[in-house]
Request: fold
Amino acid sequence: MSESEPWVPRTDRGDHRGYALLGALLAAVLGIGAAFALSAIFVLLLGGFGGEFSMPVLVGVLFVTSAVGLIGAGSGYLLLRGISISGYVRTRIPSFRDLLWVGGGYVAALGLVFVAGVILTVFQVQPQTTNQAAELGMENPSILLWLVPLSIFVIAPGEEFLFRGVVQGRLREAFDPIIAIPITAAIFAAIHYTSLTGAAEARLVAIAILFFPSLVFGLAYEQTENLVVPILIHGIYNSTLVLLVYVTIQMVGQTPTPV
Reply:
């Protein structure tokens, strides 16, 4: 498709801003709800086997079922609107330009988080929070190594399909990129509240930090019109953070205070 060709097909209400915002929120909520529901069902089913599965396998199953829920709900939302998934969520083999965006986006995402960490340090703000998967990894470091391929091949594809492919796509039907991308980033960051641990204030700080790399994911999708690009940026970004925690635990012998 050419850059000037609109995302098709659209409904008659596609360019209505109110409907676009409500639709984006609905898709996000449905996706997260489906992810939690499927994960809970599989946990109950696996529980019937009497704990025969190792922790890495259980973590892998949880993330796979979560990704299925995100992609399934996003796909269902588009189908209910009478929209072709392949025509709406754009994917292709990355070009050289796409790969440049992957590299630049990765550096930008990490750089923004680093700058945010420096600012927090200057103002002596140390939010005591982490996500649940990282907590498990700190107790069992081998899980962190499992999170590297899971981040690239499971977590990032599921989250990017729903949030960049569906949510941002829905907002782009009615809003310019300068509005649609930050709204999507805010929704994406806020949705992670339930996966974080710690006090509410600490979670809000973590969400504010997560907003910035999410902007990079959204901008990369907007500029390349290829969902593979933000998937790679997101997956490699997550993997880097996971590996930094793993190396710190193994080499320093201390559990780092997550930001």
Remarks:
- Residues 17-252 form one domain.
- The chain has nine helices and no strands.
- Confidence is low (pLDDT under 50) at residues 255-259.
